[in-house]
Every structure is written in structure tokens, then in C-alpha cells.
Amino acid sequence: MTARAWAELLRVSALFTVPGDALAGAAAVGRRPNRSTALAVGASLCLYEAGMALNDWADREEDAVDRPHRPIPSGRITPRAALTAAGALTAAGLALAARAGRPALTVATGLAATVWAYDLRLKHTPAGPAAMAAARGLDLLLGATATATATATPTATARATTTKAPAPPARAAVPAALPAAALLTAHTYAVTAVSRHEAQGGSTRAPLAALTAVTALGGAVVRDRPGETKRASAPARLLVTALTGAYLRTAGRPLAHAALNPSPPLTQRAVGGGIRAMIPLQAALAARAGAAGTALAVMGLVPLARSLARKVSPT
């Protein structure tokens, strides 16, 4: 059980796509990241890694045929160790969410249930992509709920960008964050639909549909949000546009390649690009909400994710 084997099992290079969920959620409710946001990030990381360990445990027989190099079928990690890690990480994630407040724990419980249901029951059914997408949306709502529950002041970055209403109370955190969660959910659904073909390839339709969805999502991000009393300043709009462009480039190029040649390597590359594209999408959503500082901080994770992906595959 080497560190390398656990890094592969937990797909640590994909971890950098997780903190932006909670930070985008905090921006969506108009609050600065606070201690509860940090607890939500910790809970998200634990639940994400629990899902990765549980995924390989559930797929151990399939991986023995299609991916014999994976840690469990290769014998580097035992099935029992992987299942134990999944349970321990889930418990840790729920414990961190509980420290952020009861509303955060409620969302985290729903997230954990979705993760386990996906890995154990739904992954190979038509409901699989929807379950995975719901998990990402719930992760953003976890950050929004935890942040809004804590005593915090509205984010100041909005004063330099758009005219915004005061930050909503905790009970309104979920409705306020739903538009951002919906965009992240739609992206996740598209990428998950492509991932179902990464072992055998052969599907042109899935990457083409995902490319269409990514393009539509980029357009939705850069459009003015309903309810704004005046247009965002030029620098703010430029930042949103630049981040959206980074999202489209990261996700769109490998999807286009996979649509033209749906071989397993290019399909896997498209899935990896879709996973990494979550970071600029999260940053664009934060910038769109007026949290430019948060957006730039999220984008700081990109080089880390890219560097580690060269050593450990995110898929």
C-alpha cells in the first residue's frame, strides 16, 4: 500500500477541482469566505475522496478486466482497505459539516447519500450522470449554506463591480445559490455522460453533445444576471469573459478532438479536460457574483491541478 497507489485510488489530481465549489457557493450568497466556508471545503474534500475510494471498490471486478493497472485489481490496495477508507472519509466529511452548522450538515448528508448511491447503485444506470451532477450541485450548495449560516459580512468586492442586493439570510442561501449550482450541475452531467465511454471509446454523440452543452453554459455565464440594477463595470465584465474563455478552451478543445476521433485515449483526455475545466467555471461563477478576489484565488489552483495531473490521472 504505497503512497503512489493511494494517490491513484483517490485521484488526488482531481482534488483541486473541489475547493472552488464551496468558494463559488460563498460568492453566490454575497458573503466573504469565512471559517464555515473552510469547514465546507474540508467536508467536500473528504466526501469527494470517499467517493473515489468507494468507486474503485464497487468497480473492482470490472477494473480487473478493463483497467488491471488500477490499485485494487493490481493488488496494491486491498478491497477492504478501500472500503474502510470510504467509510472513514465519509464520517470525517459529515463531522466537518456538522461543525459548520445544522443546515450545512443537512446538505452534506444529502451529498454523502448521493455519492454512495451513485457508486453502489446508479453509476451504470441511465440515472448515473444525473446523480453525479447532483453531487456537484450539492457541493456548491454546501459552501453557500455553511457560509451564510456563519456570522459574516457581505462581500466588499461587489462594490467595485455590480450593484447587488444585501447578502441573503441563511434560510435563503440555497435559493440564492441555485443558479450557480445549476450551471455547475449541467457541466458535470455533460462530462459524466462522456466518461461512460472512456474505457471502450466509440461514441461521437456523447462528446459532441457535451461540447454543445459547454458552449451553451459559457454563453449563460457571460450574460447579465436577472435582477442587476446596473451593468457590471468594464474590468468586471472583462474578468468574467476571460475566465469563461479559459473554461471553454479547457473543456471544449479535447471534447472536439474526441468527437472527431472517439478513441479511448482521446475520450479519456476529454473527460480529464472536463474535470479540470470545473476550476475556471467555478472562478467565472464567483466573478459573475462580484467576488473577483475569490475568482482569482480559485484560478490559482489551475497550475497545481495541471502539474499533478501529469503524474496521477484524474480519471
Topology summary:
Layout: H1 3-10, H2 19-28, H3 35-58, H4 60-66, H5 79-99, H6 102-122, H7 128-149, H8 173-195, H9 205-222, H10 234-260, H11 264-276, H12 278-288, H13 292-299, H14 302-309
Helix pairs in contact: 2-3, 2-7, 2-8, 2-12, 3-5, 3-6, 3-7, 5-6, 6-7, 7-8, 8-9, 8-11, 8-12, 9-10, 10-11, 10-12, 12-13
Structural commentary:
By secondary structure, the protein is mainly alpha-helical. It has helices at 3-10, 19-28, 35-58, 60-66, 79-99, 102-122, 128-149, 173-195, 205-222, 234-260, 264-276, 278-288, 292-299, 302-309. The protein is globular, with a radius of gyration of 19 Å. The two termini are 20 Å apart.
Q: Counting H and I runs of at least 4 residues, what is the number of helices?
A: 14
Low-pLDDT windows of residues: 152-163
For the secondary structure, the number of strands is: 0
What is the percentage of strand-forming residues? Answer: under 5%
Radius of gyration from the CA trace? 19 Å
Structural class: mainly alpha
Which descriptor suits the 3D outline? globular
Helix and strand pattern: HHHHHHHHHHHHHH
Give the N-terminus to C-terminus distance in angstroms.
20 Å
Helical content band: over 70%
Integer average pLDDT: 89
Largest sheet: none
Give a nutshell description of this structure.
The protein is mostly helical and 315 residues long.
